[in-house]
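Design a sequence for this backbone.
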């Protein structure tokens, strides 16, 4: 007779049964990669489990309910990737490590509660979670990783705690409904295209500690009309504000370089005040119609 659970040295290698509601046996300490198939709807994890491995529930597209016990301390890469029926998740305070792309394209995930002891929102953690509306980044998180919230189309607002020092590439790109986000003074680095295509974002206050505005940071933020360039900025990258709604911008004297099309297709832009005397302006920083309106 075929075993329902394949377990080796405490590791659940595979669920070989056909039930949709599964109770993992007590004594299992780890759930291995691709242990479950797509048909599973509800899973109960015993408090003997300490590790959820890479891709443990990958592509369990019918999974609607799972409770993670407070015995678990780590969740591996892509553990819940493509769990497209999952609507909410609570990760217990015992978890200190969450891998990359854990909820990648969980397109019906609306809310997630994260533990306080994680150091980062890992790369691609909520990438493609189009229905996500409720999320709090815990105090103590130091980094928002690359593509962490990319294409979270229903996310309207988010507060970043003042423990965060770095925002990765494409971290919020494609968050088309994002209207409000607070970037604290603790942030010193914002990656390329971090807020690319945030169409609903109207204003942004950049922290004083950043030294460059990366390429495409606010490209295609088509409703962005108010932004400050901090005094410490030295470099404004290519397409940094491409397609935005800015009407006037002041470039502080510390800026040494403005990249190609940094203000390209900014149709409302009427005036650029350039305070820097030795700034290298690359070819076509803005459209031909406003080049004559750069005031030095």
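Sequence:
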């Amino acid at each position: 007779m075929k075993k329902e659970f394949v377990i080796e040295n405490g590791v659940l290698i595979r669920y070989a049964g056909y039930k949709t509601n599964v109770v993992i046996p007590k004594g299992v300490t780890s759930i291995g990669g691709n242990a479950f198939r797509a048909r599973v709807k509800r899973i109960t994890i015993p408090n003997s489990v300490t590790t959820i491995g890479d891709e443990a529930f990958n592509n369990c597209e019918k999974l609607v309910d799972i409770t993670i016990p407070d015995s678990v301390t780590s969740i591996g890469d892509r553990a819940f990737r493509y769990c497209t029926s999952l609507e909410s998740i609570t990760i217990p305070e015992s978890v200190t490590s969450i891998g990359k792309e854990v909820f990648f394209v969980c397109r019906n995930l609306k809310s997630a509660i994260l533990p306080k002891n994680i150091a980062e929102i890992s790369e691609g953690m909520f990438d493609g979670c189009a229905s996500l509306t409720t999320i709090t980044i815990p105090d103590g998180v130091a980094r928002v990783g690359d593509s962490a919230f990319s294409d979270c189309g229903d996310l309207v607002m988010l507060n970043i705690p003042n423990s965060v020092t770095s925002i990765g590439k494409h971290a919020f790109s494609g968050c088309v409904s994002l209207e409000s986000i607070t970037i604290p003074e603790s942030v010193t680095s914002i990656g390329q295209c971090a807020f690319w295509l945030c169409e609903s974002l109207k204003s942004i206050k950049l922290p004083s500690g950043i030294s460059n505005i990366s390429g495409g940071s606010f490209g295609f933020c088509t409703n962005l009309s108010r932004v400050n360039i901090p005094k410490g900025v030295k470099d404004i990258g290519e397409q940094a504000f491409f397609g935005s709604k800015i009407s006037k911008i002041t470039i502080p004297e510390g800026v040494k370089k403005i990249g190609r099309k940094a203000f390209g297709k900014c149709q409302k832009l009427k005036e650029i005040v350039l305070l820097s005397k030795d700034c290298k302006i690359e070819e076509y920083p803005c459209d031909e119609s406003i080049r004559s309106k750069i005031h030095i």
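The first strand starts at residue 5 and ends at 8.
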